[in-house]
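Weekly sync notes, structure subgroup
Attendees: PM, AL, DS (notes)

Item 1: joint prediction request from the bench team. They want all two components modeled as one assembly rather than separately. Inputs as received:
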Amino acid sequence: NAGVTQTPKFRILKIGQSMTLQCTQDMNHNYMYWYRQDPGMGLKLIYYSVGAGITDKGEVPNGYNVSRSTTEDFPLRLELAAPSQTSVYFCASFGGKEGGREQYFGPGTRLTVT
Amino acid sequence: GDSVTQMEGPVTLSEEAFLTINCTYTATGYPSLFWYVQYPGEGLQLLLKATKADDKGSNKGFEATYRKETTSFHLEKGSVQVSDSAVYFCALRDSSTGNQFYFGTGTSLTVIP
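Output from the run, pasted for the record:
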């Protein structure tokens, strides 16, 4: 298993540009999440999904959109990038056998908006 | 709503010192509790977990006990090593809120030889 993979690892955007952060998991987990991590602020939930075709807002969804057309993929779309979206973005999935379920994180995407 | 509060850092310890990182939580349901570790430039990795009151999670010499009466899940290690230097996050999962995870702000630990 590759686990949770994210692309790209780094990206620099200009203000107003758009981009999609890709996230794929090969563990057949129903639950997937997008977080952003700002220095000293821990992780904030942007969006999450409980299964293909179902998404819901987290704590900080403004400026982002997601889709979940398959179990494996959960891309995060940034429209009209702003400096406030400079952060490290982590995708995660949650699942496993009862009693052993845990959350698995991707390696992260470091995004800078200038 | 659900939340996690953990001890602010940074924490600097000498090798072989005793470590405690405090974590308390607020939850509407009956959460599972976790400690994650993040090494520089990497994603979070699960360190240990506890799924019900009085459970003790342990891994790599780290321990934490789920205390419902004090709503706490403090992380401890008896003798830290330089390789333990990382950021530690306390988190809870509340199945009554769609299996959302709530994270503390993280505590940076540096262990010096």
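Discussion: Residues 2 and 28 of chain B are 6 Å apart (CA to CA).
Action: AL to compare against the crosslinking data before next sync.
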